[in-house]
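Team,

Forwarding the record for the chain on the shared tracking sheet. I've put the sequence and predicted structure together so nobody has to dig through attachments.
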Amino acid sequence: MNFGKTVPFRFYISQICRKGASEKGHTASVKCTSGHGKTGSCHSDGRSVKRIFAGISASGKGKCSKYIAYFDRAYGKHCIPYAVTFGNHDVQCGISNEEQAAIYRSYPYCICPAEEQAAGTFYLKIRNSSGAEALRFYLIDSGNQTVHGQYAPPAPAVLDWLKEKLFQDQIPSMVFQHIPLPEYKKCRNVTLKERICSPEKNVGEFELLRDNGKVMAVFCGHDHKNDFVGQVDGIDLGYTPSGGFACYGPGAERGGRLLTFHVDRPMHYETKVLRYCDIVAPHTGNRIKEFFDTHTPTCWPGRIELIDEENLENA
């Protein structure tokens, strides 16, 4: 079902980690709500996209198919379409991203098309009631790790594809990927709860997005405790905190990010974090684990701080 141009598109974005399969990245759940409280679907090229996952990994060689099937049951069972891209952990499961994408495509409610540039790199068209494209969501395979253990940037083929698509049509857009861009370190006056783990090498992805002029925001996961939304050169750069409890994270402040879009104002959106402590309970059932999850040092240990001119070089 498509709605008129007054309809807000609502997305729920979260990072999820569960034991055995480390699901890290975003979940973008789409709910379309009319001004009269009715709900329906936002169509993307014939399918009602409900969720976007950026960086979903199943650890353990030979278990990937099992965990993808387990993962799909949560959505396919309820006929909820979802789209998938990849992050730095996915290749650690023992099979390639291309092989994983083929498994995902075997499920009717999963959108992960076969693309030449890289598995999990594509875009979704969100259309209004007249059938015209109103919004576009780019899903980017943000890369893996270099041989030296640093985070690698997106591959050249991915950047070439992104440049081509960005300047074919200038549509109000948003980007979803797992690893943050280096420009996240330029955000001012935002709360940094752990170090920003972006690639050491800047390959110009942000410049492509900025030069397009219609990209509203980039949302990533990767750093489980961070949840800020900053802005650099007119583009919002946002995080979503970890939502699952099988990995380190911000304790009971885990949660997801809600995004609301309006078709009549496609370059404007609202967002907020929906936290476990606000919706479920002030604490988890295991206070000891909650303490260690919250205080476990990451590979870039650092105190909670504000990013500003004074401490930018230490971010």
